[in-house]
Amino acid sequence: MTKKILVSQPKPQTEKSPYFDLTTKFGVEIDFRPFIRIDAMPAKDFRQQRVSILDYTAVVFSSRHGIDHFFSLCKELRVAVPESMKYFCKSEIIALYLQKYIQYRKRKVFFPLSGKMDDLIPIMVKHKAEKYFVPQSSAHDDELKEKLDAANLTHTEAVMYYTVQNDFRPDEPFDYDMLVFFSPEGIHSLLKNFPDFKQDNIAIACLGAKTIEEAEKYNLRVDMQPTAELRSVPAMIEDYIKKHK
Questions:
Q1: Domain residue spans in the chain?
Q2: pLDDT digits (tens, 9 = 90+) for 24-62
Q3: Does the domain at residues 39-163 carry the CATH identifier 3.40.50.10090?
Q4: Is the CB of residue 202 less than 8 Å from the CB of residue 178?
Q5: Which of the chain's termini has less CB crowding within 10 Å, N or C?
């Protein structure tokens, strides 16, 4: 029976979150604790990469974190991003987030309707003359770089923010019946904090193909993942609880 759940994300700001509906409906206890945190990169660290942002005509964003830290670092570096800069975003949600920093114009902001990076690349190919700058986390992989190379696009990647593991205190209880992960870094943090972790009867939910892949890489059993019927984490949890009363 599921009594206590750890969701590796910050606590929702609104009381209307479906997570809170689960606590009322099933009497479960849910703790919200990010396994990772995002830290800003100081300008001096960025300069060591010897990249000049103004050498580029377009920026590629795969997350809102990338947007925040790109513009924050530009401000710290005293780089005035030109009005002519174009922005290529993984999804419409990320593209609309740009309104926080720029005057949004469709002719300079591009995104695929699918919300998938694989569908953004053909759009970028239509703008082959652009020089693409790709902000990254310190915890990135080379998958996007390889895809841009394969598309023969001119591009440069640079780290603009740090993804850091949140450590548990030695005296902190870890008595959960279910763990919920949203990124491969969350899996890494679990195994760093608890190198002798044994899953046994602990249920694990994962969101995202890479998170699932990373969990299975370390022989963790993924009990819940999105389906066509269960797309959200709260829906996955509710379905699991109903089936394992």
A1: 1-35+166-177+240-245, 39-163
A2: 999 999 999 988 888 999 999 999 999 999 999 999 999
A3: yes
A4: yes
A5: C
